[in-house]
Amino acid sequence: MSRILICATQVPFVRGGAEYLVESLRDELRRRGHTVDVVALPFQWHPVERIIDSALAWRLLDISHVNGEPVDLVIATKFPSYLIRHPRKVLWLVHQHRQAYDWYGTPLSDFDGSPAHRAVREQIFRIDGRALSECQARYTISRNVSRRLERFNGLSSTPLYPPSRYAGQLWAGPYHDYILSPARLDRAKRIDLLLTALARTTTPVRAIIAGTGPDRDRLQRLAAELGLGERVTFRGFVPDDELIDLYAHARAVYYAPVDEDYGFATVEAFGASRPVITTDDAGGVLEFVRHGENGLVSPPDPAAIAVHLDRLAADPAEAARLGSAGRPQVDAITWERVVQALVGQA
């Protein structure tokens, strides 16, 4: 068995899919007899000029040995954790610093195009190119992330889908009358599209918003302005068992982020045999969702989404047909495959 360190970037007070992925990987490796721990450093992304300092902190670490014992393998996950130095460094890339890459020049980026910010962006490209080239093997969490790595850095990689932390616990119940949104409440998840679409439906379909995040106040104000009233419930943080139950009884799951890296919500919805309502620019979500087969895909337009909400609200049998077709797509996403790829014979 091996001594393995997983390198993870942590924004204080924020928890999401990347954090759950790291914790699940740690637990699965330990379950297989490896000695595993997580090395996490706080990431300072604001102001933009501080990003390089956070990145270089990883470069200064020496984790080739701990307490006099060698570390056999390092698994890096997202920017800037892959700057760590180690003779056997494997990448399982969640994402790079998207504000400097595919989000650059959009409202989702903090880079303003000034000479100072352009210089920081160029530095990120340079250090990413060097650090990512050092990896003994490069995996990503989706084809979408692999395409970005090839597009921006000219580096090849292999997609390796992570299972949900709820794998084995999700189940399919009856199709109740609500749409579930389980995403973190920030602008990139576009929950405002769902709210605006609800205001345009012809059926009184309900939505349950399960999650926390910086966009909550704005979304609650929008729901009030749209007159949605009791049709929308903001649950905030919900415990795991409650979220699993919400999946099990939803009519469908709404998940339409901007060019998502992967999207645990999609594989969790399919694990509970729920169809997914999404958009044609949702990125990694579209590696699983097929329009009319296991979900519904439209342009990111509230009127088009409203049509799909009405379609499933009026026909629970259609929701069941689509949802049941999604389950086989995620059954093959297992920790056995992930561990074998990342660790191999370590």
UniProtKB/TrEMBL annotation:
Glycosyl transferase family domain residues are: 178-327
Gene Ontology terms for molecular function: glycosyltransferase activity
Superkingdom, taxonomy of origin: Bacteria
Q: Which UniProt keywords apply?
A: Transferase
An example of a Pfam family matching this protein is Glycos_transf_1
PANTHER family for this protein: GLYCOSYL TRANSFERASE GROUP 1, GLYCOSYLTRANSFERASE
Q: What is this protein called?
A: Glycosyl transferase family 1
Question: What organism does the record attribute this protein to?
Answer: Chloroflexus islandicus
